[in-house]
Amino acid sequence: MNDPVLHLSQRLEALAPYIGNTPLWPLRRAYARPGVAIHAKLEWQQLGGSVKARAAYRMLREAIQTGAYQPGQTLLDSTSGNTGIALAMLAAQIGIPITLIMPEDASVERKRILAALGVEMCYTPAELSSDEVFAFAQDMHARNPDRFCYLNQYDNSANWQAHYHGTAREIYEQTQGQVTHLATGLGTCGTFVGTGRRLREWNAGIQLVALHPDVKDNGIKGWKHLDSSRHPAIYDPQLADAHLKVTTEEAHFWMKQAARKEGLLLSPSAGAALAGAVKLADRLERGVVVTVFPDDASKYGALLQSLFT
Ligand code: PMP
């Protein structure tokens, strides 16, 4: 095949069946109250093992189709891990190089996975804030604009559109349109903004509840403390009907509950999502609350050991 862009597009298209279409898990024992149900999307059941497969796929597809990515360039983004892993798997599949910027205190599992996938890693000092890591990525791109195609997941509308076209439809269909509340955590905000926007269009009565970490220095990897940091351009402050805060202790408590009562091994941000969904459900007389479990516990070995032994 002579057209390199068409070639990349076709290779990427072939991966579409492995992105999204995750099961919706009805909580049975960890939360059981008559009239109120909690359901969670098991987002680790797709390529790369996290919710970020959706955004990574769509951002990359758009970059290739619009010409923002030129054959020969290296993909670039900053990541707390999951976007990087998803992008690295896609990049390996279609045969393009990738450089990722990640804080050096990321878990050993993440580092091993990214090394195995052949990513060129650039580690930033652990003491840098997420905004400083973001600025580092911007600067790296500015200094090498031709070498890199910078995806910038925080400001890239393909991120939220992945959920607008995918996650929302799945939730609506899987609940037979019965969903009454969406409660998800905010990182880049793609999941909440994209899913919330679409559900709202289908049913204006659906309540959208944004979940936040209670403090800046929390243990919920993947969540952003918006009060103290730069708001991603894709964040829409008008969207949420309500905001709830979750503590790291609550996230850990619900990780344990999910393990012991549902047989689900959750990541901290999935535990935090469950904590937030439960807080919301406790206030309702009736309802179907849907949340999103971004990934499972497999990349958080040290925490799992300290929580369960
Ligand atoms: N939890 C984890 C573990 C994540 O990796 C992410 C993505 N950074 C999120 C939650 C938040 O998802 P989003 O970026 O769509 O807001």
Question: How would you explain this protein's 3D organization?
Answer:
There is one protein chain. With 309 residues, this protein is an alpha/beta fold. It has two domains: 4-46 and 163-308, Rossmann fold (3-Layer(aba) Sandwich), CATH 3.40.50.1100; 52-150, Rossmann fold (3-Layer(aba) Sandwich), CATH 3.40.50.1100. 42% of the residues lie in helices and 17% in strands. It has ten helices and ten strands. The chain has a six-stranded mixed beta sheet, sandwiched between helices. Strands 5-4-3-6 form a four-stranded parallel beta sheet, with helices on both faces. Helix 1 (4-13) runs antiparallel to helix 2, helix 2 packs across helix 3 and helix 2 (52-66) crosses helix 6. It is globular. It starts with a helix and ends with a helix. The mean pLDDT is 96. Residues 50-52, 80, 82, 185-191, 221-223, 267, 269, 294-295 line the site of 4'-deoxy-4'-aminopyridoxal-5'-phosphate (PMP).
Topology:
Blueprint: H1 4-13, E1 24-26, E2 36-42, H2 52-66, E3 74-78, H3 82-94, E4 98-103, H4 108-116, E5 120-124, H5 130-143, E6 148-150, H6 157-174, E7 181-185, H7 190-202, E8 207-213, E9 242-246, H8 248-262, H9 268-282, E10 287-293, H10 301-308
Parallel strand pairs: 2-10, 3-4, 3-6, 4-5, 7-8, 7-10, 8-9
Antiparallel strand pairs: 1-2
Helix pairs in contact: 1-2, 2-3, 2-6, 6-7, 8-9
The structure holds 4'-deoxy-4'-aminopyridoxal-5'-phosphate.
What strand line-up does the widest sheet have? 1-2-10-7-8-9
Mean pLDDT: 96
Summarize the helix and strand pattern as letters. Answer: HEEHEHEHEHEHEHEEHHEH
* Total domains: 2
Q: Quote the distance from N terminus to C terminus.
A: 55 Å
Structural class: alpha/beta
Could you tell me the radius of gyration in angstroms? Answer: 19 Å
CATH architecture of the largest domain: 3-Layer(aba) Sandwich
Instruction: Output the number of helix runs.
Output: 10
CATH topology of the largest domain: Rossmann fold
